[in-house]
Design brief:
Helix content: 25-40%
Number of helices: 10
Distance between the termini: 53 Å
Number of domains: 2
CATH class of the largest domain: Alpha Beta
Mean pLDDT: 95
Strand content: 15-25%
CATH architecture of the largest domain: 3-Layer(aba) Sandwich
Oligomer: single chain
CATH superfamily of the largest domain: NAD(P)-binding Rossmann-like Domain
Shape: globular
Strand order of the largest sheet: 1-11-8-7-5-6
Low-confidence stretches: none
Structural class: alpha/beta
Radius of gyration: 19 Å
Length: 296
């Protein structure tokens, strides 16, 4: 028996459709279109692709956007000055600084410079703190997208044992918080693992829901999961493949072909979590424009 596929492209398209309708309704009432300011530092090829995907999604749902491309030699002071001017501009609803930043810039310091009311990535300490306290906030887009996938496919979370592999501030840590919160979408018993976890299999083998965001190709093998597990693979890694014209192929952190034979549900890579991250960014930008989370 093979796992049912969790189709992130399909669910993201439905979510973007809802956002598009909401944007249209918002504008019909006489409000201006939501506006997302993207800031790209340097010319990292992957970052250019990611920002292009995000701005294309904005256009599809009716959100206005602009990408400010800055030299990778910019000082932290200069970058923060630009962010402060975006904070002060009432025409800008959401600010997104594309990560990673050049090594001479502090990611934490730059994120803190963004007004938390415009932090549509959900990375600001204010939003992370409010998430931990189960208060209204901008939620980190990837874990929020995963919660939407579980909800769409009616996959139960309450009382399940969820194991998260990877403890980053962007995915793993907020994911564990969302799964364990005392609210209608959470109430799971949650374990966080990472690359320093001894005997990883001892933890993953007990997972009812396994979420893997470790950045290591094919880390999770079939013998590491139990029958009927729900597997969410956040990893997206390039591995050499001479049969592909690009010279590589994209794979997840899970050995998909072997694990899908034991799982009840599984996300593919690509086409699983990735599209949901962008869709949630659109949703957050609309929320920022409506000022529904932070009214003042």
């Amino acid at each position: 028996m093979s796992a049912e596929i969790i189709d992130g492209r399909k669910v993201a398209a439905l979510l973007r459709e809802r956002v598009q309708e909401d944007v249209q309704e918002w504008c019909t009432k006489g409000n201006r279109r939501p506006f997302l300011q993207v800031i790209l530092v340097g010319d990292d090829p992957a970052s250019i692709v990611y920002t292009g995907t995000k701005t294309k999604a904005c256009m599809e749902v009716g959100i206005e956007t602009d990408t400010m491309v800055l030299q990778d030699t910019i000082s932290e002071f200069e970058l923060k000055e630009i962010i402060q001017s975006c904070n002060a501009n009432d025409e800008i609803d959401g600010i997104l600084v594309q990560m990673p930043l050049p090594s001479h810039l502090s990611q934490h310091s730059v994120i803190e410079a963004i007004d938390h009311r415009k932090d549509v990535d959900g990375f600001h300490p204010m939003n992370v703190g409010r998430l931990s306290l189960n208060q209204p906030c901008f939620k980190s887009c990837t874990p929020a997208g995963i919660m939407e996938l579980l909800k769409h496919y009616s996959i139960p979370v309450k009382s399940q044992h969820a194991v998260v592999v990877g403890a980053s501030n962007i995915v793993g840590s907020p994911m564990a918080v969302m799964l364990s919160r005392e609210n209608s979408s959470g109430k799971a018993t949650t374990t966080i693992c990472h690359k320093y976890t001894r005997d990883l299999t001892a933890h993953t083998i007990h997972a009812d829901i396994l979420i893997v965001a470790a950045g290591q190709p094919h880390l999770i093998k079939a013998e590491m999961v139990k029958q009927g597990v729900v597997v969410i693979d956040v990893g997206i890694n390039r591995v050499a493949d001479e049969t592909n014209e690009k010279g590589y192929r994209l794979v997840g952190d899970v050995d998909y072909d072997s694990v899908k034979k034991k799982a009840s549900w599984i996300t593919p890579v690509p086409g699983g979590v990735g599209p949901m991250t962008v869709a949630m960014l659109m949703k957050n930008t609309l929320l920022a424009a409506k000022k529904s989370l932070y009214p003042n």
